[in-house]
Amino acid sequence: MVLASGTAGDDDGRGESPNQRMDRNWVELLQELRVTQMGVQILGGFLLTLVFQARFAHLNGFQRGLYVGLVVLAATTIVAGMAPVYLHRRLFRMGLKSSVVGFGHAAVLAQLVSVATIVVGTMLLVLDVAVGRGPAIAAAGALACAIIAPALAPVVIRRRQRRTALEPVSGASQAPVL
């Protein structure tokens, strides 16, 4: 059953109990964490190797500041990605899985924003060194737009779902929309 708000009710046709639903949600959340953690760790590792390259000494102040910011953000994002797992371990068998899943959901959303920022920032840094500031900003801006576009898809899907849920049953009289 889909409520007018666009959220799924208790019976979505899966025939699972609330505990089974939380277990499934937790497993799905862990899979999402695995995917994002892998990306952050690879990017973070790449960033950590840059300081040991000969050209690092030639970075200007903007590039060094961006580099340090990206390394700190990558490390923070890795730790934040581990937080739901830590919380789960600390609250294991206390009947709080719904709270753990809710926290994990928020943590994954924050991690996705951080990963997107790291990707865009890394592109900006690498291209700033390779081809200059103007093309680097243009490419990083284009990448940011490419990241934002699919991030807006859930908003569009939810609006369409709400609109469909609010449409009158076919054959019923409909007042004109003003």
β-sheet strand percentage? under 5%
Query: Span from first to last CA?
Result: 29 Å
Total domains: 1
Instruction: Supply the helix-strand structural class.
Output: mainly alpha
Shape: flat
Query: What's the total helix number?
Result: 5
Describe this structure in words.
There is one protein chain. The protein is mainly α. It has one domain. The protein has helices at about 20-50, 60-90, 95-130, 135-150, 155-165. It is flat. The model is unreliable at about 1-10 (pLDDT under 50).
Provide the fold topology.
Elements: H1 18-50, H2 61-90, H3 97-130, H4 133-151, H5 153-166
Helix pairs in contact: 1-2, 1-3, 2-3, 3-4
Features:
5 helices, single chain, disordered N terminus, 178 residues, mainly alpha
Outline:
It contains five helices and no strands. It has 178 residues and is mainly α.
